[in-house]
Amino acid sequence: MAAVEGVPVTRPRAAPPALLAVALLLLAGCAPVPSSAPPIGGASAEVPRPADAVELTAPPSAAEAAPESCDPTASLRPTAQAGGPTLDRIRARGRLVAGVDQNTYLMGFRNPSSGELEGFDVDMAREVARAVLGDPAAIRFRVLTSDERIPALERGEVDVVVRTMTVTCERWRRVDFSTVYHQAGQRVLVPANSTAIGLESLGGRKVCATKGSSSLAFVARARPRPVAVSVPNWTDCLVMLQQGQVDAISTDDTILAGFAAQDPYTKVVGPRLTAEPYGMAFPKGAEDFVRFTNALLERLRADGTWAAVHGRWLGPPPAPPAAVYRD
User: Fold this and answer.
1) What is the CA radius of gyration of the chain?
2) Alpha helices of 75-230 — where are they, by DSSP H?
3) What integer is the mean pLDDT of 119-139?
4) Which residue has the higher pLDDT, 6 or 300?
5) What percentage of the chain has pLDDT greater than the value 70?
């Protein structure tokens, strides 16, 4: 033992041999049992993936080519008639059943404080309820994923879907649409420190979009080809981006604006890649309801209601999308 100045040194006495033997026997009896648990430290926990997240090995099934004459934005001309079989059935029930989202901030989301559904699409659905039933609260919302929108209409589970739904000729074969009530466009969201400048920078890298969306099909067919990652909800994409499981999200700029508002460590990059005109979707053959809604949309564009709803959620409004009719 080294001496420390000013401190007397005391040398320990050696233990008797008998005591040493007893101590060794006690230590041997108390030796720890080998553990099957992994060592503490030195390894990181695996980050869980959202349920049903899938990396596509091929683009979604190609749909039958639309006729060249198809204009998906053209809907049925409004009429002054305020009744019909679909409208009568809704009025007899006393409430409108509307399919909406609860995962897209600013468009259709659940307010964490009140638990209520809010957003641009939700307010537009309430305007439909006001027009049909005289009360914007006479509505029951059905929360749907992108992939559930058309099946819910085909099964008669909802009267209308107002959920960031792009009108396409392929979708017109299964459902009917109103005139366009919002014009969006597909772009890309990446972490703020990413060097990507658009989808063209993401070849071979993971890009997230929701199952059943036109965004996913576009990503899967892009060149140079990214790895398209399909998830049920848009918030799944945001979580995967935050955890580094995907490199980017690509979808409509309205949805990406909500993500950027929620997470300041992200940014939207690149130009608009597509035109994404949103329409309200109806069961196939609900002509009276489509024409009634198109008359409502004409009024909302003209009286400033559309601009007010846009300003409440999406910022200063542009001119509302012009109506196009096919008859």
Assistant:
1) 30
2) 85-93, 120-133, 149-154, 169-172, 214-221
3) 98
4) 300
5) 83
Q: How many CB atoms lie within 10 A of CB 78?
A: 20
Q: CA of 213: how far to CAs of 23, 61, 172, in Å?
A: 72, 12, 15
Q: Read off the pLDDT band of 45 (50, 70, 90).
A: low
Task: Show the tokens assigned to 10.
Answer: 């005391």
282 and 289 Cβ atoms separated by less than 8 Å: yes
Query: In a 3-state reduction of DSSP, which class is residue 141?
Result: strand
Return the structure tokens found at 83. 């009744």
Spatial distance between the Cα atoms of 15 and 31, rounded to a whole number of angstroms = 22
Chain centroid to Cα 176, Å, comes to 23
Check residue 113 and give left, alpha or beta (phi > 0: left; psi -120 to 50: alpha): alpha
Q: What is the pTM of this model?
A: 0.81
Could you say which DSSP state residue 166 is in?
B
Residue 10 has pLDDT above 60, yes or no: no
Q: At what angle do helices 85-93 and 287-302 cross, to 10 degrees?
A: 80
Report the pLDDT averaged over residues 76-87: 92
Give the whole-angstrom CA distance, residue 246 versus residue 298. 41
User: According to the model, what pLDDT value does residue 19 have?
Assistant: 40
Please, which residues bridge with residue 117 across strands?
A: 110
The 3 state secondary structure assigned to the chain is CCCCCCCCCCCCCCCCHHHHHHHHHHHHHCCCCCCCCCCCCCCCCCCCCCCCCEECCCCCCCCCCCCCCCCCCEECCCCCCCCCHHHHHHHHHCCEEEEECCEECCCEEECCCCCCEECHHHHHHHHHHHHHHCCCCCEEEEECCHHHHHHHHHCCCCCEECCCCECCHHHHCCEEEEEEEEEECEEEEEECCCCCCCHHHCCCCEEEEECCCHHHHHHHHCCCCCEEEEECCHHHHHHHHHCCCCCEEEEEHHHHHHHHHHCCCEEEECCCCCCEEEEEEEECCCHHHHHHHHHHHHHHHHCCHHHHHHHHHHCCCCCCCCCEECC
**DSSP strand pairing (108-110 vs 276-283):** unpaired
